[in-house]
Amino acid sequence: xxxxxxxxxxxxxxxxxxDFLPHRPPLLWVDSLLAIDDHSCRCAVSLGDRFLPFxxxxxxxxxxxxxxxxxxxxxxxxxxxxxxxxxxxxSGMLLSCRNFSSAxxxxxxxxxxEIQVEKLVQDQGTGSFEGKVFLAKTAVAQATLTTYQxxxxxxxxxxxxxxxx
Length: 165
What we know:
two-stranded antiparallel sheet, 9 strands, 16% helix, 2 helices, Thiol Ester Dehydrase, Chain A, globular, single chain, alpha+beta
């Protein structure tokens, strides 16, 4: 895998989002990183075959799935910065969503979306980001997400806890 670019701006060519996320198919939904800086990034996703299990009978993706796409775009931003520090992308969790709105209730199979995320505040592993989704350069959805990034061993401890009775 090539090292990430050292500049903080638009990239000369899109980079695979998989290079900056711990996700793997079929749950890797963001395709590429288009631009990045210290406080924001822009990603792209095409609503292709990997979304088939989530489409309704009319081959549409419900708008609430955009929350995961925005969250993965935040993960791309964090993973790119992890790589800049010489460490692999860390695990992350979506803690909350505020002010989600979508101009349409669903998106069509084959649509290409661009996602812009901007860091509002970050304190240790917790961050708050504003995310906007664009279809054909028109803003179609937005949300404010709070995320938590932690080391893999901490996430494994959390996931191995016994279930409550």
